[in-house]
Amino acid sequence: MRAVIRVPASVANLGPGFDMLALALQVQNEVVAQTTGSGAVTVDLDPDPDDAQLLDPTRNLVARAYVESCERLGVAEAERGVHLSCVNAIPMARGLGSSAAATLSGVLVAVALHRAAWDEAQILDCAAHFEGHVDNLAASLLGGVVICAPGAAVQRIDAPDDLHAVVFSPEARLATSEARRVVASTFSRADAVFNASRCALLIRALALRDYGALRDAMDDRWHQRQRAALFPALPALIDAAYDGGADGACLAGAGPSVLALCSRDPDAVEDALRSAARLLEVPGTAMRLRLRNFGARVEVRP
User: Fold this and answer.
1) Is residue 153 very low, low, confident or very high in pLDDT (cuts 50, 70, 90)?
2) How far apart are alpha carbons 38 and 158 in whole angstroms?
3) The two domains 2-157+292-301 and 164-290 share their CATH topology (first three levels equal)
4) pLDDT of 52 over the 80 cut
5) DSSP 8-state code for residue 95
6) DSSP designation for 216
7) Helices marked H in 85-188
8) Is the distance from CB of 134 to CB of 93 less than 8 angstroms?
9) Residues 179-211: b if buried by 16+ CB within 10 A, e if exposed
10) 68 and 126 in contact (C-beta within 8 Å)?
11) Which CATH architecture has domain 2-157+292-301?
12) For residues 222 and 195, what is the distance between their CA atoms, to the nearest angstrom?
């Protein structure tokens, strides 16, 4: 049996929504999974990985999530044999949900090949074992803008189709674990109210397409200032995005990429980010991406 899994990139937080908000972007990883009779899990990657350990199924997130899902589903080891061909278009360790996409791909391979009747909540629960939080996972699975409230079902709304995303992705990587370590575990009442109010403004701005409100709505007091210590160019890049005409801008997830949302002239925003990066001597790539209102796709063939 053969399954093709396509999972989009995602950006979490969107400024104030730390571990709560995320949106899907129109760039995706693809995994072609082919069952084998050996019982073993094997992996190949395109492009060739910088880290050869990613070819080891005990270290590859797609393979690990697949095996974990098989264990939860009660699939015998002898029946788990699969070859995973992974085509990675999502930049790794840049704040664009690459680990969530890999994890979700592995879970969906298991569900598809072993004909599991898991619903969205069960898929997210299994994948969250690796991620620890569901924001990126939910955006990649469901598409659009997701709201992840602890103790409640994930909710989503469509992302505006006339809003563009411009992402500046530095060459330097930043591990999510490192970026999370610098974020405080408690916040003052004033900062909690500030971020909660910005989350409300942000959902309203997206739902009503009130793009003039995005600059205030995407402000944050919980994590961006702390993470700027790991990526000092962050404030200047956000300012450059606004100077270029962005409606809203923020650190993309844990970083170090920067996300700008713009309803007009994304070329100018892209140019502004490139120029600022050159002045700051931060090598990287600027990308224009559409927001994506559909999530992961699964195709199964005998």
Assistant:
1) very high
2) 43
3) no
4) no
5) S
6) H
7) 98-113, 120-131, 135-142, 176-181
8) no
9) bbeebeeebeeeeeebbeebbebbbebbeeeeb
10) yes
11) 2-Layer Sandwich (3.30)
12) 7
CA distance 128 to 68: 11
Q: Where are the domains of the chain?
A: 2-157+292-301, 164-290
The arithmetic mean of pLDDT across residues 154-177, rounded, is 93
The pair of three-digit structure tokens given for residue 69, joined into one six-digit string: 């899902």
Helix (H, G, I), strand (E, B) or coil at 146: strand
Contact by Cβ (8 Å): 288, 273: no
Q: Give residues with Cβ within 8 angstroms of 253, minimum separation 6.
A: 10, 11, 12, 13, 22, 95, 96, 97, 136, 176
CA dist., res. 79 & res. 1, Å (int)? 12
- What is the reported pLDDT for 93? 85
Give domain 164-290's CATH architecture.
2-Layer Sandwich (3.30)
- Residue 51 binned pLDDT confidence (cut-offs 50, 70, 90): low
Strand ranges (DSSP E) for the chain? 2-13, 17-35, 41-46, 82-87, 145-147, 155-157, 164-170, 248-251, 258-262, 284-290, 297-301
Residues in the chain: 302
Average pLDDT over residues 56-69: 94
CA nearest to 292, candidates 17, 21, 22: 22
Whether 61 shows a pLDDT value over 90: the answer reads: yes
For residue 150, count other CB atoms closer than 10 A to its CB. 8
Cα–Cα distance between 298 and 287 in angstroms, integer? 26
**Structure tokens that stand for 66 in this block:** 């697949």
Question: Distance (Å, rounded) from C-alpha 185 to C-alpha 182?
Answer: 9
